[in-house]
Amino acid sequence: MSEEAKAFEVSVIVFRDGSTWTALALEMDIRGYGSSRKAAVDDALAMISAQVSFAVQRGHAESIWKPAEDKYWRMWENARRNQFVAEVSGSEPPTDEIADLVPIPLLALKHKDEWIAARA
Fold this sequence. Notes:
By secondary structure, this protein is α+β, with helices and mostly antiparallel strands. It is 35% helix and 37% strand. The protein has a five-stranded antiparallel beta sheet.
């Protein structure tokens, strides 16, 4: 019997709105907020974990998939491009909008051929 923890990468755009940072998981339209970029990402990951766990427990994993508005996808693409250009040109990457692929644990384990909710 082999249990393998699952993970999935989500596209996350992190941006400032006034003094608050927002982290938005684009594939799921789930946001996290914080006073720093890290706090916002951590909050978004906690929200994603809760949503995925609930969806798996209910047998509706597909319900978590709800893409964010197009303007946020464009923001992510622009930030990724700017980060790439900064990296290859040796300049400082922008810090006001950060795009990244963030791995999330799926809070579910595959046991035999069934998904079951993981217990923390």
